[in-house]
Amino acid sequence: MQTLDMKRIRNIGIAAHIDAGKTTTTERILFYTGKNYKMGETHEGAATMDWMEQERERGITITSAATTCVWGDNFINIIDTPGHVDFTVEVERSMRVLDGAVAVFCAVGGVEPQSETVWRQADKYHVPRVAFVNKMDRIGADFDNVVRGIKEKLGARPVPIQLPIGIEDSFTGMVDLVEFRGIQYADDLGTDPHVVPVPSSMEDEAKAARDAMVEILADYDEEIMSLYLDGQEVSAELVKRALRAGTVGLKIVPVICGSAFKNKGVQMLLNAVVDYLPSPVDLPPVVGTNPDTMEDVTRASSLAEPFTALAFKIMVDPFVGRLVFTRVYSGKLTKGSTVFNATNNGRERVGRILRMHANKREELEEAEAGMIVALPGLKATRTGDTLCDESNPVVLENLVFPEPVISLS
Ligand code: GDP
Fold first, then answer.
1. In which element (H, E) is residue 51 found?
2. In Gene Ontology terms, what is one molecular function of this protein (predicted)?
3. Choice between 55 and 261, residue whose per-residue pLDDT is larger
4. CA 374, CA 210: separation in Å to the nearest integer?
5. What is the distance, to the nearest Å, from the Cα of residue 37 to the centroid of all Cα atoms in its chain?
6. CA distances for 219 relative to 123, 126, 226, angstroms
7. What 3-state DSSP class applies to 291?
8. 149 alpha carbon – ligand 1 mean position (Å)
9. ipTM for the complex?
10. What strands, in cross-sheet order, belong to the sheet with 181-184?
């Protein structure tokens, strides 16, 4: 039996204006996370090819409604969010299953009208965000302009936590303001980033930017406020804690930069996802309705609660057939068990539980609260249905997400 620490899960979407680099950024994420991951259990399909071979053959792209990547000890589930401007039910539903999002902006184009639409959707569902300013290598790239756009056009409070080192052709890395260090890339081939001192030519600018960051965080972190007022050093650990609390509490948006195309900044983006976006346990319980009593029911991300899950997307997989993509909100689902579909009053046997990776499927014995899995073999379950424990029925279709509480964990 695998028991996954829920704090290590991130369920995220990647949102972007068309052409900002969502596809390239996602591919690089899958590349960097896939490179090191060895699956422990049985798999099928393309598993005999190694990753690089696979990548050369057809490029790594997400072909699935949700893809699990492993970064360090963490499981990052990327949920495919349709990029359409219109507010389709599908967009709304996929927004519901996200706990956080990466907003990708083009460093040249900045905040464009379509980015505003996606941003408003994320606002509506209280989705915490980090912003990735991509294409820093392109002529006309302007990091500060994008930060300004996030503030002025989107009404958010952007907090740059990096500064670009160089620009356009000479963009070679970034200053990490949290740790106050430089990250330099030797070339454009995705060579492991090197940690270097902050370049001396940027020291004054970087100090001022770190102070500006600390000043914003002092607004809602008392410990930082008193250190700031005393003119004392604020540690990276404290800064991280406050950035996380501010992001999860929807007060701020950390902003980082990079060039996905030139393999720069993607590892730092993955770190930011883990450091600042919430895990399922950081968020308040979801609210559903008991179909018998019509009373509100809450379900927290906990194994102690009855099993509750939402089917958010149906896809047909070339190898496994019809797959029901499901987000488990509470309790756990066990392979071979029968679940109750509270939406259609039916019962379904869950014969297999799959975790989908970019190019592989992994068989699981169980799926616990917080996880996103694909269930083959369910016949009558449709998108939007709630699967649950029959003695504790709940319908999540009109899911209400309360305002997040700021968590300092
Ligand atoms: P999407 O429409 O948001 O999915 O954008 P894509 O990832 O398809 O990128 C759009 C175009 O921009 C493609 O031609 C990419 O090769 C290019 N692109 C993506 N990221 C970068 C980058 O960091 N730098 C440069 N110069 N081009 C990029």
1. helix 51-58
2. GTP binding
3. 261
4. 43
5. 18
6. 21, 21, 10
7. coil
8. 20
9. 0.99
10. 162-165, 173-176, 181-184, 194-196
CA distance 324 to 390: 19
Is the four-CA dihedral 318, 309, 99, 373 of positive or negative sign? negative
Instruction: Give the count of beta carbons closer than 10 Å to the beta carbon of residue 205.
Output: 13
User: Taking a C-beta distance cutoff of 8 angstroms, is the pair 62, 92 a contact?
Assistant: no
Atom nearest to 16 CA in ligand 1:
3
Query: Number of C-alpha atoms within 13 angstroms, CB side, residue 47?
Result: 16
Q: Ligand 1 pocket, 134 CB below 6 A?
A: yes
What is the distance in angstroms between the CA of the first residue and the CA of the last residue of the chain? 27
Q: Find out whether the beta carbon of 405 lies less than 6 Å from any atom of ligand 1.
A: no
Question: Tell me, what's the pLDDT at 397?
Answer: 74
Residues 111 and 145 sit within 8 Å (Cβ to Cβ) = no
81 lines ligand 1 (CB under 6 A): no
Summarize pLDDT for 56-107 with one digit per residue, the tens.
Answer: 444 445 567 889 999 999 999 999 876 654 556 666 777 778 999 999 999 9
28 lines ligand 1 (CB under 6 A): no
Reading the block at residue 20, the tokens are: 């900002």
Query: Which of helix, strand or coil describes residue 55?
Result: helix
Give the position of tokens 């060895």. Answer: 38
Amino acid 409: pLDDT: 42
Taking the CA of residue 264 as reference, the ligand 1 atom at the shortest distance is 23
Tell me the C-alpha distance between 80 and 13, whole Å: 6
Q: Which residue has the tokens 């968590």?
A: 407
Tokens at 224, concatenated? 């930082």
Amino acid, res. 210: R
CA distance 249 to 406: 5
Q: Whose CA is nearest to atom 10 of ligand 1?
A: 19
Can you count the helices (H) and strands (E) in the chain? 9, 24
Name the residue with tokens 């509100």.
Answer: 296
Amino acid letter for position 387 = L
